[in-house]
């Protein structure tokens, strides 16, 4: 098991490695795009440039997200990671719109096919797939939303590269309308991935509940000494859960006895719901 600090450091290292990889892929696409006069490949190179910028932004954000709680951020800085995922999803939407506009505005022009260029694009395809699977593995192992989001983004790159290669070769054969059709298909696929990411992070950013309030209330009422659960709140802080409860106990109990009941409730929340931050307020039961 990794500590939170070790996990954050590992995520930063992975993002740094992927950033170096994206620079290499960007250069390969630019070389092939210029040599073949293919707007599709040059457009894909621009996409890779956004990937490089993404890596830079994510790496900087992670340096902030890993900081401990302070006076200005009593719950820590984990939501900076969630905001970065939201930014990635937003960039995917921009990319999709850009692809659609490019497909609509593209002019007919002569495109050449170079065997060495095709070989380089196939190398890019293999690299994209390998990096996406590698990053997905670490996203699952580290339970990192930001790595999962970036792995999704890289998988879009895999599909985009396949369609770019196909449309490039078809354009050489004269089927220019298929080139535009592939671009539109990629755009809708990108929108699909972006929608999935928005579904994951928007509830966190707007403080949607992390755990069903009914489940929390029922679980707390099963603890000996809890007479009533008067308020239930939960929310996500990055990939961690925080819970605030107001419970009522027998009014005749002393402070030590009331605190012991609250401690049992907190232990239950950690064990049953994997809560990282629990705040239990005790009131007398009338």
Report on the structure:
This protein is 71% helix and 10% strand. It is mainly alpha-helical and 286 residues long. The chain has a three-stranded mixed sheet.
Q: Which secondary structure elements does this structure contain, and how are they paired or packed?
A:
Layout: H1 4-36, H2 39-65, H3 79-105, H4 115-142, H5 145-173, H6 176-205, H7 213-221, E1 228-237, E2 240-250, H8 255-273, E3 277-285
Parallel strand pairs: 2-3
Antiparallel strand pairs: 1-2
Helix pairs in contact: 1-2, 1-4, 2-3, 2-5, 3-5, 3-6, 4-5, 5-6
Looking at this protein, list some descriptive labels.
single chain; 3-stranded mixed sheet; elongated; 286 residues
Give me a quick take on this structure:
The chain is mainly alpha-helical. It has helices spanning 4-36, 39-65, 79-105, 115-142, 145-173, 176-205, 213-221, 255-273; strands spanning 228-237, 240-250, 277-285. It is elongated, with a radius of gyration of 25 Å.
Strand arrangement, major sheet = 1-2-3
* Radius of gyration over C-alpha positions, nearest whole angstrom: 25 Å
Shape: elongated
| Helix and strand element order | HHHHHHHEEHE
Please, what is the average pLDDT?
A: 80
| Helical run tally | 8
Largest sheet: 3 strands, mixed
Structural class, by secondary structure, is mainly alpha
């Amino acid at each position: 098991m990794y500590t939170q600090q070790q996990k954050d450091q590992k995520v930063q290292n992975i993002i740094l490695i992927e950033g170096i990889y994206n620079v290499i892929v960007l250069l390969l696409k630019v070389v092939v795009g210029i040599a073949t006069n293919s707007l599709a490949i040059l457009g894909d190179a621009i996409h890779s440039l956004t990937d490089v910028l993404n890596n830079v932004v994510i790496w900087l954000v992670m340096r902030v997200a890993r900081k401990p709680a302070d006076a200005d951020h009593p719950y820590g800085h984990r939501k900076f990671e969630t905001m970065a995922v939201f930014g990635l999803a937003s960039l995917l939407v921009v990319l999709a719109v850009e692809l659609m506009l490019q497909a609509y505005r593209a002019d007919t022009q002569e495109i050449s096919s170079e065997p060495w260029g095709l070989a380089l694009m196939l190398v890019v395809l293999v690299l994209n797939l390998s990096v996406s699977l590698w990053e997905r593995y670490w996203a699952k192992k580290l339970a990192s939303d930001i790595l999962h989001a970036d792995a999704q983004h890289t998988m879009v790159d895999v599909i985009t590269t396949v369609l770019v290669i196909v449309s490039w070769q078809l354009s050489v054969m004269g089927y220019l309308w298929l080139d535009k059709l592939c671009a539109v298909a990629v755009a809708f696929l990108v929108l699909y991935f972006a929608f999935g990411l928005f579904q994951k992070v928007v509830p966190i950013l707007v403080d949607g509940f992390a755990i069903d309030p009914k489940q929390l209330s029922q679980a707390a009422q099963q603890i000996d000494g809890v007479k009533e659960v008067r308020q239930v709140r939960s929310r996500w802080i990055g990939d961690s859960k925080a819970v605030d409860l107001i419970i009522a106990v027998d009014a005749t109990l002393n402070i030590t006895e009331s605190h012991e009941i609250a401690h049992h409730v907190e232990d239950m929340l950690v064990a049953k719901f994997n809560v990282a931050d629990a705040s239990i307020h005790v009131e007398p039961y009338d």
